[in-house]
Design a protein that fits this description.
Largest sheet: 3 strands, parallel
Shape: globular
Order of helices and strands: EEHHEHEHEH
Number of strands: 5
Distance between the termini: 41 Å
Number of helices: 5
Strand order of the largest sheet: 3-4-5
Structural class: alpha/beta
Strand content: 15-25%
Radius of gyration: 18 Å
Helix content: 25-40%
Amino acid sequence: MDRRDRFWLAACDVSCRLMAVEPRTPSSQAAREVQEYLAHLRPAGASDIAGALRFAASLSHEPRTSDRELRVLYIGDGIASVGPRHAGAVAASALALAQTRHVVFSTVGIGSDSDSALLHAVADAGGGHYTPYAPGEQTTTVALKVLETTYGIALRNVTIELPLGLDQIAP
């Protein structure tokens, strides 16, 4: 993240709780606060993935331009137990939010039993990327993969027009 970026951190199950009301600037101090916030969380309860995506998409009310996208990174197992639970339904929610709120959704699947189909579907529908995190993998490696896919150059919504009369393509 660079100095122009801002972030919110929310922990969600059936509802979401923000670490701080105002968006934070990336810094070593903010990293310590994130560690402290996460250290006090105890995973439990049901998971509403679509609700978490809606919550995250609602955080920024600033108008977005092409150089200031709102990017949401979902980190979890992707196993929805409340609200829409099937990959297609959750992806449809992500697509609607991406189109109406101009949000990009990326996902990180935690654990070997994460619902990779749902997490792939959300990332694809939201114009983002899916990154798996397997047990034993270094967190720094996964973090670099996420940054690479988020800030790297990528083509989106590509269309190719072939010349009239072209009906076969060969290598």
